[in-house]
Prior knowledge:
Elements: H1 2-16, E1 26-28, E2 36-40, E3 44-48, H2 51-63, E4 72-76, E5 81-85, E6 90-91, H3 99-111, E7 122-123, H4 131-145, H5 152-161, E8 169-171, E9 180-183, E10 186-189, E11 195-197, H6 199-207, H7 211-217, H8 219-223, H9 231-252, H10 257-267
Antiparallel strand pairs: 1-2, 2-3, 3-5, 4-5, 6-9, 7-11, 8-11, 9-10
Helix pairs in contact: 3-6, 4-5, 4-9, 5-9, 6-9, 9-10
Amino acid sequence: METKVAAVIADISTKLNIDLAGIKPNYYTDGATDATVFSLANKYLVKITDLNTIRTQAEFLKENPNGVFQDLLCSDEELGYECFEFVDGVHYDGSLIDAKVATEQIAEIVRNYRKYPHEGYGFLNEEHVTWRAFLLDEIEYARRTIPEVSTEKVMSALEVAGAEEPEQYLMHGDFGTHNFLLENGKIRVIDPMPVVGDYLYDFYFALLSNVEIFTRLGADYIYGFFPERELSYKRAILTVALYVRMSRAATYDKENLPAYFDLYSAIIER
Length: 270
């Protein structure tokens, strides 16, 4: 890997016309990705990863150049890397930003997603023919992780959420506080896993990534966003998003899983 990293750094130096001689990589590992991730001089963030990730992230960032997401500075498919600006922020902490301010910023981010007419729905380059098929796949995957949770209400919600094909947007796809950095009070977002579909799914997915946001504000306040959308549809999308987020917590956030169960009982099973 050292040889590969050296080749990547040399290529970045050439592409960006900068001198990186003697700069040692600072590696990051969190167990949540198979990529090799390191920073250079606190100016560049480099990922050595798979070809699909390189291509789909480049597509997302090309379609969403709004300053919220990291700038992609260069990449190389043959060497298998991408180089981003290094965001000098702190990871999201509910104590550092008011829940309402965070929610307003999250809503503004998804409002600015670009329309993306496409042949399918779901993770980019792994699309399903319909929006319903994508949501069903998400539910089935989650069911294997949290089999003790009844899916009766979720499947009913699916019939509402998947009744029509929504307008297509290219969304972040792993939109949540674990990928939020705060920079001067503003949310910056890293690590997209691009998804084609309805931006409401990303909106609820983000809010449900931190149970405290939802419990502090309550369902009625959150349903107040995007008043142009039907309340029944919003409830259905939130139900699916909560079920899927709960399954992610069972894998990546086990200490907060009981809080997800409580939220599910309070909102979905009431």
